[in-house]
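USER: Study each token:
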Amino acid sequence: MLTDRVTRTDRTARPARPTGRRQASRRRHPHDDAPATHDLFVRFHGLEPGHERDLLCEELLQAWLPMAHRIAGRFRGKGEALEDLQQIAALGLLKALQGYDPERGAFESYAVPTITGELRRHFRDHAWDVHVPRRVQDLRNTVRTARRELALRPGSPEPTVAQLARHTGLSEQAVLDGQRALNSYRAISLDAEPAREDGLSLAETLGAPDPAYDLVVDRLAAKPGIEKLPRRERTVLYLRFFEGLTQSRIAEQIGVSQMQVCRLIAQTCSRIREQAANGPENDGSCRVA
């Protein structure tokens, strides 16, 4: 009987409640250190726009600024300077001050989501090196979370596109879009340390405009006019621009003076250039008188 009574007593016993400093620490909320500014908010809400309202707004802003900075600190390590994050949080705090109604509850319950939303909006709209649509940003977050979840499974290799699609319920094309967006948040510097086996930096591997493409276009534009030239004019142009002969050598070969060769080249090139500029509809003769 004694044993049964002890057992029943042990079963119904309740743990002792924490007292003193321990009890206060368990009741403490992250925003319990908020300043007591309810009366100031009531005054602020009832004032018309003016100098007095501006001064009271500044006083409230200074009082609540430590909380805004604390929220900004949660977003450290995402590529933005802490000072910039604090500035954005202060802007969110100002918006919260201007939109808060003291009759609807505590200020922190309104200010915290407003400040957090302002910070997240900054990362969404301004922190990307390559700006992508909101839909693709959401795909990036979904794919990144899915990769992390699948990689945590014991013995799981890097998940494939098909596995990510099954895990997220997205199409494979949507998963591919999200994977491309993973590399759009931060761009790689052209002067970054080379990660290639040949030791070349990214800037050294980039292509440059090829002047040969313009040359091909010019030749195709001039081709119809050249085909309509008489034989002597075609011969002069060929010897000058393809064989590289001087005007005096060309004059010796075709039996005319050097001055005639110079005039012939200038007039022929002018006619070909004019026809190329006017387009294929110009069927006029390129014959030089």
About this structure: The chain has a mean pLDDT of 78. Residues 20 and 26 are 10 Å apart (CA to CA).
